[in-house]
Design goal:
Layout lengths: L6 E6 L2 H18 L2 E8 L14 H31 L6 E7 L2 H9 L4 E5 L11 H9 L4 E4 L10 E5 L4 H9 L1 H5 L3 E7 L7 H11 L5 E5 L5 H12 L3 E5 L5 H7 L2 H8 L4 E4 L1
Parallel strand pairs: 1-2, 1-4, 2-3, 4-5, 6-7, 6-9, 7-8, 9-10
Antiparallel strand pairs: 5-10
């Protein structure tokens, strides 16, 4: 069976999100032979209006008109940004779609009919880690998420690391990443363990070999937290994509106690492919 990522979904709510994600998504799509679908999440204007108690109907109508106008301008700017970036990537098919209503519900619905969701992480963007769009993409679609760092042009990728902890989430991320691993120049399976007899990384390498993917196993003893260890390994090896399962523990436990997912997603300088 051929593993393919044929439809990449880029959810946006303004031009800044388009600028942050679409150029990199187009470069990745060109390597994979994929279509990029930009999904504009249009808010409902009435939700942006503060309905003051006792406000005259005319005042409410004025506020609603202003909110609608602002949303129209925001959407037009986003579409113009899509047209601009599409023009610089003529070999990639880029589709524009608009989903009105609750953003998270729309993203969840459309996300289930794609192969990979590409989310930018940049200041002031609602798709930042732990934001509603990120949560909807990761937890409500059943699809992998490619979280992009705020800066950098590290797509397509050549050096990939798979963070393996043996969890269900790690297994899903590994399977979802097969098309990217197949095109990489090097693949390293990272296993953070202080047990010299731990052979799980080698088992993953054997699994990848059955898919025609050559990989190397690397077991490293934890130096500080697991997240710090992985971060150091990624930097030292010049990795440009990290593949990992997300939130093997509950989100509440990660929030209260901290965790590998929370720590890495908040500060990783490279794209991360996630699955839950």
């Amino acid at each position: 069976m051929t593993h393919r990522l044929k439809r990449l979904l880029v959810p946006v709510h303004d031009a800044a999100a388009v600028d942050a994600a679409l150029p990199r998504a187009c470069r990745l799509a060109a390597c994979l032979g994929s279509v990029v679908e930009v999904l504009y999440l249009r808010g409902i204007a009435v939700d942006r209006v503060l309905l003051g108690e006792g406000a005259p109907p005319a005042a409410l109508r004025h506020r609603l008109d202003e909110a609608e106008g602002a949303e129209d301008r925001r959407m037009a700017a986003a579409q113009a940004a899509v047209d601009l970036h599409s023009g610089t990537h003529p070999g990639t098919q880029v589709r524009w779609r608009v989903a009105a209503g609750a953003e998270t519900a729309a993203l969840a619905r459309h996300g289930r009919l794609c192969d990979l969701i590409v989310l930018p992480r940049h200041r002031g963007n609602a798709t930042t880690v732990h934001g509603p769009q990120f949560n909807a993409a990761l937890f409500e679609t059943g699809r992998p998420v490619l979280l992009l760092p705020e800066t950098g042009d590290a797509l397509p990728v050549s050096r990939v690391a798979v963070a393996w902890d043996g969890s269900v989430q790690a297994g899903r991320a590994l399977a979802d990443a097969l098309p990217l691993l197949a095109g990489a120049e090097s693949v390293t399976v990272l296993r953070v363990s202080d047990d010299p007899q731990d052979g799980e990384a080698e088992e993953v390498v054997a699994y990848l070999a059955d898919h025609g993917i050559a990989a190397a196993a690397r077991r490293v003893a934890p130096a500080g937290s697991v997240a710090d260890t992985l971060r150091a390994e990624v930097a030292a090896a010049g990795i440009d994509l990290l593949v990992m399962g997300a939130y093997g523990h509950s989100r509440l436990r990660e929030r209260v106690l901290g965790g590998v997912s929370r720590s890495l997603l908040s500060s990783a300088p490279v794209p991360i492919l996630l699955a839950h």
